[in-house]
Amino acid sequence: VRLVARHSNKVFDVSGSGTADGTNIQQWTWNGSNAQRFTISN
What we know:
By secondary structure, the protein is mainly beta. Helix content is 0%, strand content 19%.
């Protein structure tokens, strides 16, 4: 899933493709990297 910010039309991007708690998330132009792909679960 891609998460897109409405105001900027950029996607959420996890800094350095990190997986640790507290890793920064930034907005970035879509490039298809794993840092921009999310799984939503319940």
